[in-house]
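User: My instructor asked us to take a sequence, write out its structure as C-alpha cells, and then describe one feature of it. I'm not sure where to start. Here is the sequence I was given:
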Amino acid sequence: MTAASGGEEEELYRALKRMRILQRQGRFDPEAASLLDAGCTGWANGRAFGSQRLWQERRDELLDWTAKNGRRPHPSAGDETERSLTSLVAAYRKHALRGRHPERIKELNELIPGWAGTPE
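Assistant: Let's start with the prediction itself. The C-alpha cells for your sequence are:
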C-alpha cells in the first residue's frame, strides 16, 4: 500500500477522529497529546488541516506538479498524486465561490492563472 492510498488515508482519518474523541472525553494520554500539539498544532479540533503550513505545502505541491506537467491536474487521472491535487483544486474552487480564504485564492490566481478552470 502506498503512502497516498485512499485506504491508508481513511485509516489515518479514523485514527485521528478516535484520538479527538478520546481527547474531548479526557481519556487520551496527556503525553501523546503533548507530542501531537508540538508537531501538529490544532490536531484535536481540526484546525491542523486548515493550517498555514499545510496550505503552503499543498500549494507548493500543486505548483511543482503543474510546472512539471505543463497542465492542471485532471480528476480522472490514474496517478494518485494528480487525483489528490484535483481534490485540492476542487476544494478551493468551493472556497472561492463562498468567499473563504481570499488570500489563498489570490495566491492561486497569481501563481497558477486559470487554476479553477476545467482541466484539459
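For the description part of your assignment, you could build on this observation: The helical segments are 6-25, 30-39, 52-69, 80-98, 102-111. Try explaining in your own words what that tells you about the chain.
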